[in-house]
């Protein structure tokens, strides 16, 4: 319940959560503004979840609908699982942004617009026939039309900057307003400015002044009669930082390299939304991380195979179209049984599709997208922070079983951020590495009876000279072999090896009810909205369980038995029903798919409505 | 792990127990034999040699060389080899490939490996045909050639592999011939001694699908008239009676006969260390002109360019020297952090 504190001049209301969205032209700095607000909320101790949503074009024509970029954050004094279904406060820098985003603003929500950008030409670019500031279409909202440019220029007048440079700071004026509105200190952003513009003191000062001016504007003009306070969340005790999925993956692989005691080699070719992993890892040379920006996607994976062959953790990062190009090389890694990790940061497809939007439609590609029988373990993170742990888990499986492993992340996890409890080094899993050195009885395909992995015999080891390759191998010797029964044996052996991974993955234990009406089975970034919906629907008296699969191949051994305890199995996915297909085929259970293919994550309310529909 | 003394190797030490599956009479046998002999003489340890290949007849090579071997996928050997070499700059990495594998499906990897100057030695078997797929034209097949896939003759202009390698900023480019054993071995040794990328085009006869493709060069009678052997610091002389030479006139090469006032002093003196590619380019295109011999030997050997893997690893060492070895606990705590208390 909201508590209202009466202050001398204004009211300050204590609420438990708010959703705020910054939107504007791709050149308006909305991503930076949003992430600054996020970091400040995080440092304050709120739980939060973010949703950056930007166009694939770097700069679509200014002021047009395709050029609109947005950043949404939900921050709260209690648990947050999603960036929020609808928005409490919308900051729109131009008519195009307003048009694209207004539908998500709650009735009577706060709407801050840049009043100066509603001239006739701006409206034309946004394909608006009338001016929303004048035509009463915004009557249902708390509208604050502010001359952002004029006010910013006035604040920066003493700095001697040209008009264009001053106008570039208007996003920080808006940010300052939001800090006042939610009673946030400015120091986190000021620290960031100091660091970001280390050698450009004028830019530090300009942005600082613009932000201060926005803050003071609210304070002085009494435009806002009310401001809000959202107390810190009660998170598990520990040290926290804000983290995005791509950063968490990068840090996870550095940690994996340290735990394994061998170097990390990343072969990668830039592709949205995976490139940030390459950017991040290229900074960690002090950890001996080798990053190789290859000439193409194929060289990215094959160089990683070469590095794995030579004793590194071989890693390659990509998205769907790149994954398609890596297909043949994946088969080589399966055949030569090479420890390799492949990250597919999924985006909308097919072909180039929706490069900056999220989707989960590469599951079947990851499971089966190779010629012949070429099984590969597949795992998926569920939250941005979970990406860290999934990187370690993938590396552990790859090395233990001498097998390539695919990680399926997606655009939403990659760019979304949440507070992350920083683990102690002692809490990280061990990743034992054994390079074969003993020539006595050495055979390149003689398997470890427990893991079915073959020895990792790296070049430079005396007495272990041997030949491997993509042609079918004879069991044990690894020699070229075309015999029918050997081939069948090897095909079954490679499959059995992947099945062995299930020996050390935890059983599926539903969150919520252990038996009952509906079991939700899902994977990847749908974790947030499902978790949030599960809470409300169980509170409403329905008996619902939720299994969020981290391991998609092999599946937990007890999954079939868990499914049997529920009347209905619901599988929400951002695809046409790929996990549904697997579950139906494997367990002969009539699972209900719930599928959304819009380049956007599920809303909590969508999952809630689906559950209500199923329980009647 | 590694004992100090280098074992004394013979050719036999580099042979494997695998049955060789090339057609009888294939030029690959001669190349294999030369490579095995050279490996035994290089003064490097067998376990430090890695032979990597793609797909094609030539790419079966690693199975027959007793060292570390990796038979990869079509065209990708240079990329796999680059990964190996960056990870382990101390290894001697060789690639066995062909005109289809290296110049068609693997063209992209070939040019990027060469421009980066990764310390990989590439043996490119050029038989101007696709052998393993049974006789389609290759990117080096001469225009108009009738093959299984071009019954009316090819319509493609061919690549000149040497020219392509030079254009890719290769620091070592050479050509030899399968049946010229002595020359081939010498060329391989020079390639082995080169620090960066070495690209060696080996003219190789496919006696099944393109027999006699190099007869002009290899036939005993005509050989001396049709081949000029390049030697650093020596004039370009050829001919049965060593009476013909090559002279540079502006940017044009001319074949001249010695005598009648023309002496060796007028001839072009081979300089494979010239860092400018122009000279090597002119040589590369020589044999395509009537009356000119085919140059064999080292066309270009430019030692001043650092190896890619050394630059990468030096950068890592540099950062470690400046920042110290990375501390994971510290890294995880980078940026803004906050404490949540119980």
Brief write-up:
The longest helix of chain A has 21 residues, at 201-221.
What would you say this structure looks like, in words?
The complex is a heterodimer of chains A (616) and B (342). In chain A, the strands form 5 sheets. A 7-stranded mixed β-sheet of chain A has the order 12-11-13-14-16-15-22, with helices on both faces. Helices cover 36% and strands 22% of the residues of chain A. Chain A is globular, with a radius of gyration of 27 Å. Chain A is of the alpha/beta class. The radius of gyration of chain B is 23 Å and the shape is globular. At the A-B interface, α1, β10, α9, α11 and α12 of A face β1, β2, α2, α4 and α10 of B.
Describe the main β-sheet of chain A briefly.
Answer: 7 strands, mixed
**CA gyration radius of chain A, whole angstroms:** 27 Å
Number of helices of chain B: 11
Encode the helix/strand succession of chain B as letters: HEEHEHHEHEHEHHEEEEHEHHE
Structure class of chain A: alpha/beta
Please, how many helices of chain A? 20
Question: Major sheet of chain B: size, sense and barrel closure?
Answer: 8 strands, mixed
Shape of chain B: globular
Strand content of chain A: 15-25%
Number of domains as seen in the coordinates of chain A: 3
The assigned CATH architecture of the largest domain in chain B is 3-Layer(aba) Sandwich
Q: What's the CATH superfamily of the largest domain in chain A, by name?
A: Pyruvate-ferredoxin oxidoreductase, PFOR, domain III
Strand tally of chain B: 12
Task: Write the CATH fold name of the largest domain in chain A.
Answer: Pyruvate-ferredoxin Oxidoreductase, domain 3
Q: What's the N-to-C terminus distance of chain B?
A: 52 Å
């Amino acid at each position: 319940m909201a508590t209202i504190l009466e202050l001398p001049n204004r009211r300050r209301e204590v609420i438990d959560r708010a959703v705020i969205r910054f939107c504007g032209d791709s050149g308006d700095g909305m991503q930076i503004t949003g992430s600054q607000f996020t970091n400040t909320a995080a440092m304050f101790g709120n739980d939060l979840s973010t949703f950056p949503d930007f166009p694939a074009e770097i700069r679509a024509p200014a002021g047009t609908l395709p050029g609109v970029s947005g950043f949404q954050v939900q921050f709260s004094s209690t648990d947050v699982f999603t960036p929020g279904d609808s928005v409490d406060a919308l900051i729109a820098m131009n008519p195009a942004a307003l048009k694209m985003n207004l539908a998500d603003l709650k009735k009577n929500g706060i709407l801050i617009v840049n009043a100066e950008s509603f001239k006739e030409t701006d409206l034309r670019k946004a394909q608006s026939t009338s001016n929303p500031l004048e035509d009463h279409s915004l009557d249902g909202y708390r509208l604050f039309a502010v001359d952002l440019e004029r006010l910013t220029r006035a604040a920066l007048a003493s700095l001697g900057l040209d008009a264009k440079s001053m106008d570039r700071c208007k996003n920080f004026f808006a940010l300052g307003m939001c800090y006042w509105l939610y009673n946030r200190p400015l120091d986190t952003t000021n620290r960031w400015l100091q660091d970001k513009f280390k050698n450009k003191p004028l830019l530090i000062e300009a942005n600082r002044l613009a932000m201060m001016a926005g803050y003071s504007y609210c304070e002085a003009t009494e435009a806002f009669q009310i401001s809000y306070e959202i107390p810190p969340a009660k998170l598990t005790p520990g040290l926290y930082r804000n983290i995005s999925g791509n950063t968490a993956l990068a840090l996870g692989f550095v940690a994996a390299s340290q735990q394994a005691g061998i170097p990390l080699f990343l072969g990668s070719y830039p592709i949205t939304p995976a490139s940030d992993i390459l950017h991040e890892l290229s900074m960690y040379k002090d950890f001996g991380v080798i990053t190789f920006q290859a000439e193409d996607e194929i060289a990215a994976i094959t160089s990683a195979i070469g590095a794995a062959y030579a004793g590194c953790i071989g890693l390659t990062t990509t998205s769907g179209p790149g994954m398609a190009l890596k297909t043949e090389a994946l088969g080589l890694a399966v055949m030569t049984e090479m420890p390799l990790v492949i990250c597919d940061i999924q985006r909308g497809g097919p072909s180039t599709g929706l490069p900056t939007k999220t989707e989960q439609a590469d599951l079947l590609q990851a499971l089966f997208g190779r010629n012949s029988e070429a099984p590969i373990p597949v795992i998926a993170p569920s939250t941005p922070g979970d990406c860290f742990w999934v990187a370690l888990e993938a590396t552990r499986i790859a090395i233990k079983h001498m097998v390539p492993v695919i990680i399926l992340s997606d655009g939403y996890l990659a760019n979304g951020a949440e507070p992350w409890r920083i683990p102690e080094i002692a809490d990280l899993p061990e990743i034992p590495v054994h390079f074969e050195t003993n020539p006595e009885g050495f055979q390149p395909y003689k398997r470890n009876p427990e893991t079915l992995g073959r020895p990792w015999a790296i070049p430079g080891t005396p007495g272990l000279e041997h030949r491997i390759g993509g042609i079918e191998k004879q069991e044990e010797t690894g020699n070229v072999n075309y015999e029918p029964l050997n081939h069948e044996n090897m095909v079954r052996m490679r499959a059995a090896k992947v099945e062995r991974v299930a020996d050390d993955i935890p059983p599926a234990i539903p969150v919520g009810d252990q038996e009952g009406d509906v079991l939700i089975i899902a994977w990847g970034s749908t974790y947030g909205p499902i978790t949030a919906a599960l809470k409300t629907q169980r509170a409403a008296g329905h008996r619902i369980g939720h299994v969020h699969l981290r391991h998609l191949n092999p599946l937990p051994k007890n999954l079939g038995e868990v499914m049997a305890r529920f009347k209905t199995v619901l599988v929400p996915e951002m695809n046409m029903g790929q996990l549904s297909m697997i579950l139906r085929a494997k367990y002969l259970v009539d699972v209900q798919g719930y599928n959304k293919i819009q380049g956007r994550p599920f809303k909590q309310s969508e999952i809630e409505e689906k559950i209500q529909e199923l329980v009647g | 792990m590694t004992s100090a003394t280098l074992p004394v190797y013979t050719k036999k030490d580099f042979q494997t127990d695998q049955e060789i599956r090339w057609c009888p009479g294939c030029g690959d046998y001669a190349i294999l034999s030369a490579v095995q002999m050279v490996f035994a003489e290089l003064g490097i340890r067998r376990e430090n040699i890695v032979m990597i290949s793609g797909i094609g007849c030539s790419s079966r090579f690693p199975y027959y060389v007793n060292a570390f071997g990796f038979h990869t996928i079509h065209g990708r050997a240079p990329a796999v080899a680059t990964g190996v070499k960056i990870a382990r700059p101390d290894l001697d990495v060789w690639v066995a490939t062909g005109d289809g594998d290296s110049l068609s499906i693997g063209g992209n990897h070939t040019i990027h490996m060469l421009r980066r100057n990764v310390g990989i030695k590439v043996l490119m078997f050029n038989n101007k045909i696709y052998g393993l797929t049974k006789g389609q034209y290759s990117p080096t097949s001469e225009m108009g050639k009738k093959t299984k896939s071009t019954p009316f003759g090819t319509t493609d202009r061919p690549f000149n592999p040497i020219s392509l390698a030079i254009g890719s900023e290769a620091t070592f480019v050479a050509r030899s011939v399968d049946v010229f054993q002595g020359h081939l071995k010498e060329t391989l040794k020079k390639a082995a001694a080169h620090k960066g990328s070495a690209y060696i085009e080996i003219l190789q006869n496919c006696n099944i699908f393109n027999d006699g493709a190099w007869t002009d060069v290899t036939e005993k009678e005509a050989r001396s008239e049709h081949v000029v052997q390049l030697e650093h610091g020596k004039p370009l002389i050829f001919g049965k009676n060593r009476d013909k030479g090559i002279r540079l006139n502006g940017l044009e090469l001319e074949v001249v006969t010695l005598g009648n006032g023309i002496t060796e002093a007028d001839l072009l003196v081979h300089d494979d260390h010239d860092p400018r590619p122009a000279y090597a380019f002119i040589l590369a295109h020589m044999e395509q002109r009537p009356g000119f011999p085919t140059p064999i030997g080292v066309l270009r050997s430019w030692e001043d360019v650092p190896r890619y893997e050394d630059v990468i690893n030096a950068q890592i060492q540099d950062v470690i020297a400046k920042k110290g070895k990375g501390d994971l606990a510290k890294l995880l705590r980078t940026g803004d952090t906050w404490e949540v208390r119980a």
